[in-house]
Amino acid sequence: MDCITPDLTAALDSLSKRYNRSEIDEWGKSHEKLEDILPPDDWRLKAIKAFRRRIKLAEDSRESRVINAIRDEIDKQGITDNSKQIDYLYSIGLGCTRIGKILNLSHNTVSDRIFKFRKENPGIQGKNSIHYIDALILIRNGMTGIDDKTFKSYQY
Fold this sequence. Notes:
By secondary structure, the protein is mainly alpha-helical. It contains 7 helices and no strands. It has helices at residues 6-16, 34-37, 43-76, 82-92, 96-103, 107-120, 132-140.
């Protein structure tokens, strides 16, 4: 998806000409939103809002593709039990909300299993901070914290 359109380029170019003949800043301070500066029907604002929508759609599409790829990788590894899937994804570093989204499970189901998993394996501490794409890379490279509490593929 090409998110940069000629309209967006023209809008940004016109906004970059910020000073009038008196060299007075026409567009306000850097912390001000364009929505507060430009009128709602301004063509530049419309072009920028359209760009934001395209970016959001592209991000959502990418996230969906990565989530499906993670599901495929879990299937390839033959992990069919939900508890084992949660354990695996948590040990990689995914948090409760992301695991629930990948496995289509409720937040309570996932958090209960994570609580049990942490009690059973006190040495494993999930970071809960990685994103979907990072998890996919770790899975595809055979890295996990379940078996030996370090990444299996990491060599000193």
